[in-house]
TrEMBL record:
This is L-rhamnose mutarotase. InterPro entries: Dimeric_a/b-barrel (IPR011008), Rham/fucose_mutarotase (IPR008000). Gene3D superfamilies: 3.30.70.100. It comes from the Bacteria. One of its GO terms (biological process) is rhamnose catabolic process. It comes from Streptomyces candidus. The keyword Plastid does not apply. Its EC number is 5.1.3.32. GO terms for molecular function: L-rhamnose mutarotase activity. The keyword Isomerase applies. Keywords: Isomerase. Pfam families: rhaM.
Length: 106
């Protein structure tokens, strides 16, 4: 199982709305993530907007490609794009660059 961690930056003026959106993620989006192989997916948000994402998956590239092929993901990414800083024209899920793992206590 591949462990993936990534960082994004949520706009400070939209933190409360970002939290609210994730308190009620669309059921079809949750189903798509599960079907695409996203396991133990968590998001952690710091008060300054730093977002830390973590997930486990057999193959991150395949999991991303599977999500990219779904209609619900296209709608979700479009609805969430305005929440983030520095996407450089990418959808939020395209801007998720995995961090290098340097230690893991098994």
């Amino acid at each position: 199982m591949q462990r993936v961690c990534f960082l994004l930056k949520v706009r400070h003026d939209r933190l409360d709305e970002y939290r609210a959106r994730h308190a009620s993620v669309w059921p079809d989006m949750l189903d798509a993530l599960t079907a695409a192989g996203w396991h133990n997916y968590s998001l952690f948000l710091r008060v300054d907007g730093l977002l830390v994402g973590y997930l486990e998956t057999p193959d991150f590239a395949a999991a991303q490609a599977s999500m990219a092929s779904t209609e619900v993901n296209a709608r979700w990414q479009k609805s969430m794009a305005g929440f983030f800083e520095q996407l450089d024209g990418q959808n939020p899920d395209e801007a998720m660059t995995p961090l290098s793992e340097v230690f893991h206590l098994a």
